Amino acid sequence: MPDWQSLISAEFPALERWTFLNTASFGQVPRCAVAAMERHLAHRDELACHDFLDWFEDHGALRPKLARLINASGEDIAYTPNAASAMAMLMHGIDWREGDEVLTFEDEFPIQVYAPQARGVKLVQAPWPELLERIGPRTRLIAVSMMSYTNGFLAPCAEIAAAARKAGVLFYVDGTQGVGALRFDFGAIQPDMLAVDAYKWMMTPNGVSFIAVHPRLRPKLAPLTVGWRSDRGWRDVANLNHGAPRFVESAEKYEGGMLPSLQLYALDAVVDMMLKLTPELIEKRVLDLAAQSRAILERHGGVIAWPDSPIQAACFQGRDAVALAKALHQRGILASARHGHLRISTHFYNNERDLERLDEALNDRSLTVAAR
């Protein structure tokens, strides 16, 4: 069993000053990731970036590590700037016809809501389990978050994926809320695409995401971004192809140009940490802390939306969630408010003392009055 407290003390300096219960907004970057970025910057100065092609080899070596994390193949993995870019790739790659529909949950994250409508595609929103009943002859895509940012609802991705395959519908999962805290079995679930922005539960500076694109989709989905790395011979920089690009069959074809090396070296260090801890133990730690959070919130009158989630979203009768989050902030406790819920989101770097501080604050009558 990991020594969680020693790990927290060694890797997460911000937690010495703050009670941080808000990974669903931003994850804490560990010192090992910062050190990896510093090494890269020093290396650039040492060699004046002369070896920049070697950086791509390092980033290529990260692909199978990410694949291990989600039970995919390294060939499935590509890097994008953010989850919105991944969704854009999919939306622009579908041959939409009038009347086609994108199906998603009610209260979904705005990416899934905005992207279809910006393309002029009909958006259908439904709660679970009515979502599956809304799959119809004009449904072309089901796009959902792995975990709801508003209330912590965990999408039954395996069930949705099976229904989507049966109906011949594409299935997209935004795993930004979830991957890094909970296990996601890409090989078993088999969505057409999984996108993970790494700045939350993957604890990496913002600016890099990774996607897993299923082999059945890659021949049909053209790259949205086409650049000097789109041709399979891009490593021969002295003789770049000046004809039509010859795409590789792997998901790397979706990258096109330069990569955010600084963030990728940080992500590499984070993934090494996660694989060493193991996804199983991380998930257990996250859910244990979430259960403790739930007990505290319920003891103070909170009604929890989805009890089994890493995101504990609580409504308090007579208390405004925004005001309550602000009052906690004044006590050095960082949480957030989303659509009427006080949102508590703990990662493996939290501990029981963090939750004791939350308990003490919620027990304070003056905070209760201030949050009305």
Topology:
Layout: H1 4-11, E1 19-20, H2 31-47, H3 52-70, E2 77-80, H4 83-93, E3 101-105, H5 110-118, E4 122-126, H6 130-133, E5 139-145, H7 157-167, E6 170-174, H8 186-189, E7 193-197, E8 209-213, H9 261-277, H10 279-299, E9 302-304, E10 311-316, H11 321-330, E11 333-334, E12 336-338, E13 341-345, H12 352-362, H13 365-370
Parallel strand pairs: 1-11, 3-4, 3-5, 5-6, 6-7
Antiparallel strand pairs: 2-8, 7-8, 9-10, 10-13, 12-13
Helix pairs in contact: 2-9, 3-9, 4-5, 10-12
The CATH topology assignment of the largest domain is Aspartate Aminotransferase, domain 2
Please, what is the oligomeric state?
single chain
Q: Beta-strand level of the residues, as a percent range?
A: 15-25%
- Identify the CATH class of the largest domain: Alpha Beta
CATH homologous superfamily placement of the largest domain:
Type I PLP-dependent aspartate aminotransferase-like (Major domain)
Low-confidence stretches: none
- Under the CATH scheme, which architecture of the largest domain would be assigned? 3-Layer(aba) Sandwich
Structural class by SSE content: alpha/beta
Largest sheet: number of strands, sense, barrel closure: 7 strands, mixed
Counting structural domains, the number is 2
Rg on CA atoms, Å:
22 Å
Helix-strand topology string? HEHHEHEHEHEHEHEEHHEEHEEEHH
What's the number of helices? 13
- The total of beta strands comes to 13
Q: Which sequence of strands runs across the widest sheet?
A: 2-8-7-6-5-3-4
Roughly how much helix do the residues carry, as a percent range? 25-40%
